[in-house]
Design goal:
- This protein has about 200 residues and is α/β, with parallel strands linked by helices.
- The protein has 2 domains: about 120 residues, P-loop containing nucleotide triphosphate hydrolases (Rossmann fold); about 70 residues, no CATH class.
- A 5-stranded parallel β-sheet has the order 2-3-1-4-5, sandwiched between helices.
Length: about 200
């Protein structure tokens, strides 16, 4: 059981997944908010049953999975419906993530949360780690990776906390503007630090 949780975050295109996987290579258990968010609305889940009851059965695909694009349409420009959905899902996601952290068989856990500060989930962790890159690089990498326009990327960046806000709140920062080899050294150093803090060196 892991009592020490590190919240890993970073803006879109910052390289959160790469950093998380480097920690995983060192034997650290990852609890990923995006994966948990899908799990809590999977077929047979309490979350999906509540969504179907609220929006109707046509919110499902033919295979019984949630039709995400239809759900997005329903809550787009509808604050009331969006608030209802967030009120349902956020507690379920939080509860599931904490349960997974408790069950983790590693000295500490990395909780990967894109909107760690924005959603107040930094309150659930003992330490926060920000993967930081410049907005220009963020835009370049995201456009190349997701084949989206500069405007779309700017909208996403604009909906997240500013770089300055995240930097001011983070306990630790990894600058991810260089090579993967440099990234690995930074992760190794932080892993040693976290093991020391949680008394497992």
């Amino acid at each position: 059981m892991a009592d020490f949780i590190v919240g890993l975050t970073g803006g879109i295109g910052s390289g959160k997944t790469t950093v998380a996987n480097l920690f995983a290579d060192l034997g650290v258990v990852l609890v990923d908010a995006d994966i948990v968010a899908r799990e809590v609305v999977s077929p047979g889940s309490e979350g999906l049953a509540a969504i179907v009851k609220h929006f109707g059965a046509d919110i499902l695909l033919s295979d019984g999975n949630l039709d995400r694009s239809k759900l997005r349409e329903r809550i787009f420009d509808n604050d009331e419906e969006r608030l209802w959905l967030n009120g349902l899902l956020h507690p379920l996601i939080r509860e599931t993530m904490l349960k997974k952290c408790k069950e983790a068989q590693s000295n500490y856990v990395i909780m990967v949360v894109p909107l760690l500060f924005e959603n107040g989930l930094d309150r659930l962790v003992q330490r926060t780690l920000l993967v930081d890159i410049s907005p220009q690089l963020q835009q370049q990498r995201t456009m190349a990776r997701d084949d989206v326009s500069a405007k779309q990327v700017q909208n996403i960046i604009g909906s997240q906390a500013t770089r300055a806000e995240k930097l001011s709140k983070a306990d630790d920062v990894i600058d991810n503007q260089g090579e993967i080899s440099a990234l690995k050294c930074k992760v190794d150093a932080l892993n040693s630090l976290y093991l020391k803090i949680c008394g497992n060196t």
